[in-house]
Amino acid sequence: MVSGLLGVALGSTLGTMLVKSFPRAHPIICGVGLLVSAPALALAITLVRDYFYPTFILIFIAETALNLNWAIVADMSMYVVIPPRRSTAEAFQILISHMFGDAGSPYLVGVISENLKRTLSPRQAPTPQIDFSSLQYALFVTCFIEVIGGVFFLIAAFYIVKDKLQADRAIAEADGHSSEPSHSTAHEDVEGE
């Protein structure tokens, strides 16, 4: 819980401070956060059997780095989408992250773990050691997904400024068009008199 609060606050603060002087800061913060989280989590998963406190410290670091992106992703979703579609964009972003993250990942890790049990213990009932090892190995998938996510955020850094400018341009054009009918109507009323 503390890592979540700290990560969200730190990500939001870093994003607000850096984006003014470095417009690509948001996706870079998210990408670096994921790329820091992945090895810390992998090391925690590796050490969990033998080391109690170092494991929790590494998980705290991993979760703090992972949570840097929550507020920033919401900001990015808002400023690359025009206002009438922002609530839909945010809803889909939340739906997809929860569908594949919160809802899908426990199932995926469980399926991998069960298959590993059969591989590690093909002819006998799994022992507690096999149960532990299969779940431990399956959890490495989360580290792999974090690396993929980090790379995609870093790729997004190349496009974020252009995407924001396109959204700003579309908003400006929409504002220009929405004000034109009232001017043209008023102009036509004057001409009609």
Descriptive overview:
This protein has 193 residues and is mostly helical. The protein has helices spanning 2-19, 25-47, 53-66, 69-79, 83-120, 128-156, 160-192. Mean pLDDT is 87; it is low at 179-193. It comes from Arctia plantaginis. It is a multi-pass membrane protein. Keywords: Membrane, Transmembrane, Transmembrane helix, Transport. The chain crosses the membrane at residues 25-44, 51-73, 137-161. One of its GO terms (cellular component) is membrane.
The number of helical segments is 7
SSE pattern: HHHHHHH
Q: Helical proportion?
A: over 70%
Query: Main sheet, how many strands, which sense, barrel?
Result: none
Distance between the termini: 69 Å
Q: Give the amount of beta strand, in percent.
A: under 5%
Number of strands: 0
Cα gyration radius (Å): 24 Å
| Basic shape | elongated
Low-confidence stretches: 179-193
| Mean pLDDT over the residues | 87
Provide a brief overview of the structure.
This protein has helices spanning 2-19, 25-47, 53-66, 69-79, 83-120, 128-156, 160-192. It is an all-alpha fold and 193 residues long.
